[in-house]
């Protein structure tokens, strides 16, 4: 199953992937070089599922993701940084962009998951996006599941991706 | 919007296939790459578009950018304007059937550069070596057909196909099998015995192939484009490529495959590859000028339309951006162009029931003797168009004034109704709307014309009656391989000419500037990979173009990659759905 991770540059997309798949975190920010996609097999109920998680490879920086990146996604994860208002404001943009580019058949019910990352930063002192505000956005946008994570401290990362996997699985067309 | 950093080893302008191949190769070789395109989407003239975008793109040229005032010199460097002042598309004619809903425009992924790839060709090897194959899925072309005597004739894709083919007489089956065996054995001998500059077509006849068989081999197996131009050496190499490609990914499958979502995904795969290796991507970013070293004219940097200066040690751009370099090149107006005629049709059914990806070859003269050049057609289905509909692409080198004049008759051969204002059946391919017997009749009549036009072949009498009898006796039993009047209808057809700028002589450009050409015809990517490799070699003479990277051993990684691709192909299957 193909999962794509969207969100502004620097919110921690690559770190989340790496923490989830490799249990590794690198404190240095490298404007994504070398991140491609990672695969992880997980058990959901009685099903063994392979998640293929696609990074943006940095092409989001200048709004230059191509349609090929979006195609065939079973779930779309949108990440923001709880310490950065603009990255939260851009959730709308990324969601719209996904729906236009990927053109999924089930526009209304397509599974998104929203992740607010970097909750560990300054012990939460620098947080500007409250959980309440984020949950409200998610509720208004079709009850999108919402997680707050720290890729650095490995908080809630597994739970977020487990939800992603379940949602992706539910999106599998029955007839194909 | 400021681009950081401001210095790169290479700046690539345009996201066509050749450009993207070079960008990916440079990033793989550890070079820093800035890859920009003035368009909203990837691909340039190689892109894929929705139906609405296609109409807009063909009819209105991309807006030419406002000239910004740059002066003649910046920090001691010359300023050479980069401007695309021409639109490659002309004679655009779009026809839509009244009252037919073609479905949402977004459900279409229409290639500006549709192509089939040989299952073995440099592009596929580059995809495997680079890992870019992971970004793409392919599907096999299920069947090739050749248009002969007014009908689609299946091109055998395997030995068992040869035996099963009821349109072949048993003597022809023997002839063809023996011929192919001989070619395979000769290829093993490093072609010594058959290397020759003589025309391939003559050689085929010497081998004892009947005229229809020689035609089949020349146009639908060796994929020759003109009667006399292919030499025996080239022809035998082309046969070798085809035979090696056949059945590579599935027994009994043909020689060709096609990206699942169309050819427009190929440049994007190489762009992603480049991005993964650190290349920076900026769409909607025209470049205004190139900064050149006085004297050598070597590129030292570029200026974006927004006025930002970026230093670089090399520049790659589509040929159409580099005119200003050629204007004062010593060999003057050596700008070479070729002109293609293209058609895109949206149909309501497949050319052949149960098949989706289909290739059709019209040999010269096969469309009522009118087409001087080979016409190729590719049909593809869902997911590049809504389920139940198909896209049919046609292409040939133009000889007539407009694409429609070149292609409308061939379109009329394949489709029952076309909303192109040419509903009157053309003489060559009368549109049969009534019953099958009438169609038989007219086909016989047509054979008669064909037989007179062609030179008599040994063993066959060029008389209408003989030809007709043969047809009824051997070629068209029980409608098995016969197209009756169930041909699909088109609800949309669009004709246009495309002017493709070819490479100028290398010397015409500065030593650190390479050009990329636009897309050619429908068959294969060899010339484009070769051209990208040459461009890359010019800029980075010490680097290898997509070397095999070895996690373990060379053999293993390649096998593994091959395994991956094979697995993908098997799961997808030839039928698409």
Features:
heterodimer; A: 176 residues; alpha/beta; Rossmann fold; six-stranded mixed beta sheet; 6 helices; 21% strand; globular; B: 577 residues; alpha+beta; eight-stranded mixed beta sheet; 15 helices; 24 strands; 31% helix; lipoprotein (chain A); prenylation (chain A); GTP binding (chain A); Small_GTP-bd (chain A)
Please explain how this structure is put together:
The complex is a heterodimer of chains A (176) and B (577). By secondary structure, chain A is of the alpha/beta class. Chain A has a single domain (2-171), classed as P-loop containing nucleotide triphosphate hydrolases (Rossmann fold). Helices cover 32% and strands 21% of the residues of chain A. Chain A is built from six helices and six strands. Chain A has helices at residues 13-22, 67-70, 85-89, 91-102, 131-140, 157-171; strands spanning 2-6, 37-44, 47-54, 75-81, 112-117, 146-148. Chain A has a six-stranded mixed sheet with strand order 2-3-1-4-5-6, with helices on both faces. In chain A, strand 2 and strand 3 (47-54) form a beta hairpin. The longest helix of chain A has 15 residues, at 157-171. The mean pLDDT of chain A is 91. With 577 residues, chain B is an alpha+beta fold. Chain B has 15 helices and 24 strands. In chain B, the strands form five sheets. Chain B has an eight-stranded mixed sheet with strand order 7-23-19-22-21-20-11-12, with helices on both faces. Chain B starts with 6 loop residues before the first strand and ends in a 5-residue tail after the last helix. Chain B: Belongs to the Rab GDI family. Chain B: One of its GO terms (cellular component) is Rab-protein geranylgeranyltransferase complex. Chain B: GO terms for molecular function: GDP-dissociation inhibitor activity. Chain B: This is Rab proteins geranylgeranyltransferase component A. Chain B: InterPro entries: FAD/NAD-bd_sf, GDP_dissociation_inhibitor.
């Amino acid at each position: 199953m193909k999962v794509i991770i969207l969100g502004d540059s620097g919110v921690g997309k690559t770190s989340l992937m790496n923490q989830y798949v490799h249990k590794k975190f690198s404190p240095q920010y490298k404007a994504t070089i070398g991140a491609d996609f990672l695969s992880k097999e997980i058990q959901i109920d009685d099903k063994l599922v392979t998640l293929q998680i696609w990074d943006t490879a940095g092409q989001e920086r200048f709004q230059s993701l191509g349609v090929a990146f979006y195609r065939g996604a079973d779930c779309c994860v949108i990440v923001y940084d709880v310490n950065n208002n603009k990255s939260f404001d851009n959730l709308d943009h990324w969601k719209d962009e996904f729906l236009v580019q990927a053109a999924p058949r089930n526009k209304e019910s397509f599974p998104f998951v929203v992740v607010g990352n970097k909750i560990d930063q300054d012990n939460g002192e620098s947080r500007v996006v409250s959980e309440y505000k984020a949950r409200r956005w998610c509720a208004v946008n079709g009850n999108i599941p919402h997680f707050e994570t720290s890729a650095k401290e490995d908080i809630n990362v597994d739970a977020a991706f487990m939800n992603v996997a379940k949602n992706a699985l539910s999106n599998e067309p029955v007839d194909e | 919007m400021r681009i950081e950093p401001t210095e790169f080893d290479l700046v690539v302008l345009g996201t066509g296939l050749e450009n993207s191949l070079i960008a990916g190769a440079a990033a793989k070789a550890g070079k820093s790459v800035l890859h920009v395109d003035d368009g909203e989407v990837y691909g340039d003239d190689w892109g894929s578009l929705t139906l609405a975008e296609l109409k807009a793109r063909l009819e209105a040229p991309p807006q030419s950018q406002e000239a910004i005032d740059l002066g003649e010199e910046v920090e001691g460097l010359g300023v050479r304007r980069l401007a695309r002042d021409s639109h490659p598309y002309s004679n655009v004619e779009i026809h839509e059937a009244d009252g037919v809903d073609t479905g949402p425009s977004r459900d279409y992924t229409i290639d500006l550069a549709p192509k089939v790839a040989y299952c073995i060709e440099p592009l596929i090897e580059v995809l495997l070596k680079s890992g870019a194959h992971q970004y793409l899925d392919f599907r096999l072309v299920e069947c090739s057909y050749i248009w002969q005597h007014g009908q689609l004739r299946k091109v055998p894709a395997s030995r068992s196909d040869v035996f099963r083919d009821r349109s072949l007489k048993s003597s022809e089956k023997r002839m063809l099998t023996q011929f192919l065996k001989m070619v395979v054995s000769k290829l093993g001998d490093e072609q010594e015995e058959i290397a020759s500059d003589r025309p391939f077509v003559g050689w085929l006849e010497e081998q004892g192939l009947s005229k229809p068989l020689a035609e089949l081999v020349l146009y639908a197996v060796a994929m020759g484009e003109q009667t006399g131009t292919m030499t025996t050496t080239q022809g035998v190499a082309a046969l070798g490529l085809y035979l090696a490609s056949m059945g590579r990914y599935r027994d009994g499958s043909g020689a060709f495959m096609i990206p699942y979502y169309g050819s427009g995904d190929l440049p994007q795969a190489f762009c992603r590859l480049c991005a993964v290796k650190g290349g920076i991507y900026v769409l909607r970013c025209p470049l205004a000028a190139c900064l050149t070293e006085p004297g050598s004219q070597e590129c030292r940097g570029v200026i974006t339309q927004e006025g930002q200066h970026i230093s670089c040690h090399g520049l790659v751009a589509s040929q159409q951006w580099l005119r200003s370099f050629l204007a004062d090149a010593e060999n003057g107006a050596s700008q070479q162009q070729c002109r293609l005629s293209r058609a895109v049709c949206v149909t309501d059914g497949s050319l052949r029931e149960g098949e989706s990806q289909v290739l059709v070859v019209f040999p010269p003269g096969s469309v009522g003797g009118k087409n001087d050049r080979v016409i190729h057609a590719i049909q593809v289905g869902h997911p590049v168009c809504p389920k139940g509909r198909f896209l049919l692409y046609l292409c040939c080198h133009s000889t007539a004034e407009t694409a429609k004049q070149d292609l409308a008759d061939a379109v009329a051969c394949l489709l029952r109704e076309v909303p192109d204002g040419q509903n009157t059946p053309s003489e060559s391919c009368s549109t049969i709307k009534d019953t099958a017997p009438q169609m038989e009749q007219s086909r016989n009549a047509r054979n008669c014309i064909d037989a007179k036009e062609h030179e008599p072949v040994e063993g066959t009498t060029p008389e209408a009656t003989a030809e007709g009898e043969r047809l009824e006796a051997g070629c068209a039993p029980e409608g098995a391989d016969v197209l009756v009047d169930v041909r699909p209808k088109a609800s949309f057809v669009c004709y246009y000419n495309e002017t493709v700028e070819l490479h100028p002589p290398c010397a015409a450009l500065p030593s650190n500037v390479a050009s990329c050409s636009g897309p050619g015809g429908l068959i294969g990517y060899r010339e484009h990979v070769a051209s990208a490799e040459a461009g890359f070699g010019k800029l980075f003479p010490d680097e290898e173009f997509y070397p095999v990277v070895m996690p373990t051993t060379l053999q293993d990684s390649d096998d593994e990659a091959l395994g991956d691709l094979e697995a993908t192909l098997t799961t997808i299957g030839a039928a698409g759905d």
